[in-house]
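User: Modeling request: complex.
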Amino acid sequence: GENVEQHPSTLSVQEGDSAVIKCTYSDSASNYFPWYKQELGKRPQLIIDIRSNVGEKKDQRIAVTLNKTAKHFSLHITETQPEDSAVYFCAASTLRGGADGLTFGKGTHLIIQP
Amino acid sequence: NAGVTQTPKFQVLKTGQSMTLQCAQDMNHEYMSWYRQDPGMGLRLIHYSVGAGITDQGEVPNGYNVSRSTTEDFPLRLLSAAPSQTSVYFCASSPGAGITDTQYFGPGTRLTVL
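Assistant: Request completed. Predicted assembly structure:
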């Protein structure tokens, strides 16, 4: 089955700097790659996603890039703010774009230092 | 819309006891799934359903049963609870392929098995 590796497990950046979280996947058939943000004690919430026919997607301060050949994708957050502090999960799916379940990375704890 | 709801929020069981975690959605979503979240492990898929009357196993199905008699409800049953099932359980739903693949998570159930 699919295996998703996520790095780093903890990332500390100064407020205003950029943060990058990287994920690799094993199944070349994967075609849907969402990113979720989870605050302490809360449910995961989708922040951005990308499909395998797109190389990059942006939404304000957040962007995701996908390299299908290398089987890796990354989350980029620019101009980080204190409210960006959370655990971020990448995920991948091979079946119908994620509707049949996702394989998640183990998460990155992002800490924004004031 | 209430979205995805889960009950109970917290539960403590003794080894060998049985219980059902409830999940309901009022968005007429076709797809529903159950995940467990353990520290440092991300979220792992237990079971999923692509529609009423249809269920399938995910990555970690052992010890859990599901059924989908209606579009709205997708209960998760623990027949004989074990300490290894101590976890936070999230239910998620998705409209289905071709519409959007965003998965909407419920608030979670924190289960402790003694």
